[in-house]
Amino acid sequence: MKGLAYARESSANNVQQLLNAAGTAEAIENWAYIDASASISQQNISALGTQSPDSSLINSNRTEVTSVNVSPYLRGHIGNLASYDARLTWQSTHSDASTADSNSTTAILRLASDQSFARVGWFADVSHQTLDFQTTGSNQIDRVNGGLTYTATPELRFSAKAGHEINDLLTPTKKGYSTHGWGINWTPSARTRFDAEREQRFFGNSHSVRFEHRMPRSVWTYTDTKDVSTDAGNGAAGGITAFDLLFMLEASRIPDPLLRAAFVDSELATLGLTRGSILRGGFLTSAVSVQRHQDLSLAVVGVRTNILVSASRSDARRLDPTAVVTDDLSNGNRLNQYGWSVNVSHRLTPLSAASVTAALTKATASLGSGATDLKSVIATLTTRARQNVDLSLSARRAVFASTTSPYTESAVIASLRLRF
Length: 420
Known about the structure:
Oligomer: single chain
Radius of gyration: 23 Å
Structural class: mainly beta
């Protein structure tokens, strides 16, 4: 929780909450579980509005977004024939200064053959989803899928599926559509993974590609997804953070996730970074949309010098262009965003470090002349004065270009951090 008080703009005084929490409970041993997660963050309402490199700057285009996800489920086996997974998921997203609020409830039952005894397997699933955006009302999606899997080697598996879905996302009443797709999963080692899926849906082709490769001192990640977005807060331009990269990199050296998270947080604090560093862009949506996100990230950790690089690109459009809502995707508008961020940090002594971060975020619209462009550079010197006291001094330069509210900023920031 951050309390912000302004010397010359006391009317803007506010409290900002930041949260990233997740947990799993085993309600009944080896059978019933509950997953839960929650997040609170500062997000842009519009990608075409005023952007700022720091949430403490007064900006009417920014709002606090809260997201909660609760998912109880049952998991077990039916003799030696198949395994089952029955799950109910409730998700809610709420923003303080926008009508971009959404709720969804999803029930899914999945059956799959036991893969331990044969190369050829099968799976089937049935699901029902109810969506509710504040501005457009409720929609429903029913799906049935069945498919086959083929395990060519322990590291390589192929899959194919076909099914049927019924929804009212494009029509006043429910309409049925045939679906089909394929997938591949390749894990040549504990350090490398490649997953890809493609499916023909009612709106066109959806796909998901993910590649991860870890080396002793570096990690590469690439993701490319396209699908229907049913969450009001899902319009982020970049999906990877400094914490994510370092958390993956330390997987081999620190297997325990809690100890690893504590170690990564300590490293980020020493380097003058936060969990959300290198994540840029984003916007809120008020109705169901089709979005594609591409993210490429690299982390290189040396003896004293670390390099974090992230590049992202996204495009989004309203699924139903006739929906009467006002946001970045109104009236058939198509929004494109791209950006990159580079951070170089160098440990001067065991207790001090210097870092420089350069970033660019740009958004353009297919309709009208709306466009934004934010460039920023920040240099930070951090030192640990005592075991529980960190001091940092930063200098920042930002240049924001837009047709409505361009600005430039120069800032010097001093910080004192106490840990209890």
